[in-house]
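During the second year of the project, the team shifted from modelling isolated chains to modelling whole assemblies. The rationale, set out in the original proposal, was that interfaces cannot be judged from single-chain predictions alone. As a representative example for this report, we include one of the complexes processed in the last quarter. Its constituent sequences, exactly as entered into the pipeline, are reproduced here:
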Amino acid sequence: MRLFSRVEAIEAFPLADFGGHDKPTLAQNESAFAPSPAALEAGRAALARAALYPDPDWNELRSAIAETLGVERGLVLCGAGSMDLISCVVRAYSGPGDEILASAYTYLFVASTAAQAGATYVQVPEDDFAVSVDRLIDAVTPATRIIFLCNPGNPTGTRIGNAEIVRLRASLPAGVLLVVDQAYGEFDDQDPRPVFQLVNEGNTVVLRTLSKAYGLAGLRVGWGLFPADVGREVRKIVNSNNVTGVALAMATAALQDRAYVSDVVRRTAAIRDRLAGRLRDAGLEVPSSFTNFVLVRFSGEAEAVLADERLRAGGLIARKVAGYGLRDCLRITIGREEEMVRVGQILGGLRGESGAI
Ligand SMILES: Cc1ncc(COP(=O)(O)O)c(C=O)c1O
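Output from the structure prediction step:
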């Protein structure tokens, strides 16, 4: 059967390998907490309407986003997870001969969508696991069409300040689309408004998801703020009816339950900071995280492999990040306190015996 050579040349997006482990892992940055009870209730009610197609205009969800985050409703598009919107924006705004610039440690799915579009994915080094705006600006060429910025970053967990993002936008040619992926934005303690505001100035897109702080990864709901003209073009390639009725109802209720999400964020951050403290006390390097995971750097690849094995033996599945070139690191999602205490004990003990490594 005839296949486009470009498709043949694409490597499949690597799916996480949990070695047959069928319990929640520490590998996908899912929430350690159940979704809001109000969201669960809304989901049960929406199931009764499963015979009907969902609202293709996402009206209630858009209103909830606008009301709770103070953004303009008409600029919001919704996706089956933010992956859906990443893929649509990359396909709409880049193609063969174009470059997509991203910091070295940016969500790898972007590289995969760049390949689908036939665009060249260019990675720019970071300084000590922090995005360098100066390096990104220096790397822009006439072929650059999109700059993709994950803030906070994955897999580093670090973030740059709003003022740096504003400076980046101001330094870019008007024809370069800046996409700011804020999948972990709820865990960032910065005011989101200065970045949302960039969308009103044109040529900047901000993406968010219900998969992390809201605990709805299994439902697949993401959304983005798009300048009106960009949103109009992206909308042409978004599948209509892309978000199910149950997902729309649950996401709407979850967004409206502000007290619940704030509590999840606060509790997750407290568990994260205790884990990071324990790991640093054991001599491991852990960059400051503004997400629901930590990156842990070991003395070398051998120690990282041993750490992964020991965690797995204890039923704890962390994420290898060799795909980012970080062979000496593991990324660990923040789970329940009991699990994180065990992670601390296993990794702390390892350091005690690392004379062998
Ligand atoms: C930085 C970042 N962006 C986007 C996503 C995709 O999230 P989803 O498609 O579940 O909204 C993830 C998922 O891990 C992520 O880490």
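Residues 18-32+259-352 form a domain with the Aspartate Aminotransferase, domain 1 fold (CATH 3.90.1150.10). The chain is about 40% helix and 15% strand.
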